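input
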Amino acid sequence: MEKQKLTTKQLFLVASLIFGMFFGAGNLIFPVQLGQLAGHNWLPAVLGFLLTGALLPFLAMLAVSLTDSKSVYDIAKPVAPWFGTVVLVAIHFTIGPLFGTPRTAATAFAMGVAPLVPAGYQQLAMLVFSAVFFGLAYFLTVKQSNLMKWVGKYLNPIFLVLLGLILVLSLVLPMGDLSQHVASAYQHHAAFQGILDGYNTMDGLALLALAVSVVYAVRALGFTGTNVSKVLAKSGLVAILMESLIYVATVLLGVSSLGTMKVAANGGTAFSEIITHYTGNVGVLSTGVIVTLAVFTTAMGLFVSFAQDLHRVFPKVSYLWWLRLIAFGSFVTANAGLTNIIAWSAPVLMLLYPYALALTLLGVTNKWVKQDGTMYRFVVAAVTVPAFLDALAASPLASQAWAANVVKGYTTNLPLAAEGFGWVLPALAGLVLALLWKFLKKEEFGE
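output
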C-alpha cells in the first residue's frame, strides 16, 4: 500500500483536534495566576510550566500511539493488569468528578457569572449555575448530541478571537510593566515551581487518557503503522506551538496586571478582573458566555470518556450509571469553590504525575523497551515511595508533627525532593536495576 502524504489541511485538522483537547479550564486560569505569582521571575517560571503543560501532553500522545494502546489501561498493563485498572480509575476520577469536570463549571462561574452577582448570593448562584451546567452536560451526553462538535467548531475560535483582543489591548495599553516584585514561592527555584504548576492543567493526565481519540482520528484519515506517530508528531508540534504562545501571552498578561491590581485568589478571578478593566461588565458577560460554552465541550468530552472507559472495565455497571456518577459528583465538588478545588487537587496530582511521567517515558521509548514487564515493574516500584511522600508534602497532613518530620527527612536527604521531584533519581535507579536484572537472567526485551 502506497504511503499517504500528510497534506497541509490534514496537518491543521489534526492540530486543531489536539488543541481542542488541550484547551480547557486549566489552560485559562493557571497561566494568568502564574504570571501574578511569578512577577519579574516570569521567564524561568513559564519555561518550566511549558515542560509539563505542553511538552508532557505531547509525549503522552506519542506514548499512546507507539504502544498501540486502546486506553490508559493498556499503557499501564505491562506492570500488571490490576495496576492498569487502578491507574485508569485514578486518572479518570481525577480529571473527572473529583477535580477536572468540577473545575470547568467553577471556572466558567468565576469568570462570567460571579462578577455580576452580589457577594451575599454567590453560593446560591453557583449552586443553580452548576446544577444547570452539569444537568445539561448529562442530558446531551445521554442523547449523544452533536452540540459538542458544533460548539468546538464555532465557539472555540470565537473565544480565541476575544482572548486575542484582550492580549492585544494589554500589549497596547499595559496595566503595568514586567518588573513586578511579588513575595511568593517563585522568588526561589522559579523554573521548578513552574513545572509543578504545569501539573495543575491536568493535561498530562488527560492526554494520557484521551489521546486514543486523536490516534483514531489520524487512522481515520488513512494513516497506518509508523505513519500515525509521524502525523501525531507534526500535528502535535503545531498544536503545542499555538498553545505555548497563548501560555506565554497570558502569563505576561498576569505579570502586567500587578501594576493595577493585587494578586487574586485564583486565576479565574484574576482573568475576570483583567477583562473588567479593559471592557467593563459587557465584556465580562460576553466572555463569560463564550468561556462557559468552551469549557462545556470539555466537560462533555470528559463525561463521555469517563463513562465509556469505566463501563469497559466494569461492564456490570452501565454507561448510564457511570454518567450519573460523574454528573452528580462534579456538581457536589464544583460547589466547594474554584480555590478549594485547586488546593485539594495538589496532593492527588503530586501522587499521580510520577506514575504518569514514568509510564509516558517508557511508552515513548517503546522501540527499545517493547512494553517489557520487568522494566515497567522496576521503574514503577521505584517511584512509588517518592510519589506518596510528594503527595504527603502537598497535603494538609503536612502540618502535623509526624508528617512534617517524615517530609523533612525526605526533602533533606533525597536530591530534588525539596523541589517536588524526588521520584526522578529512584526512577533512574529502577531502570538501571531492571537492566541489570535482565542481563543476569539473560532475558530478551518483551519477555
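quick obs: The radius of gyration is 22 Å.
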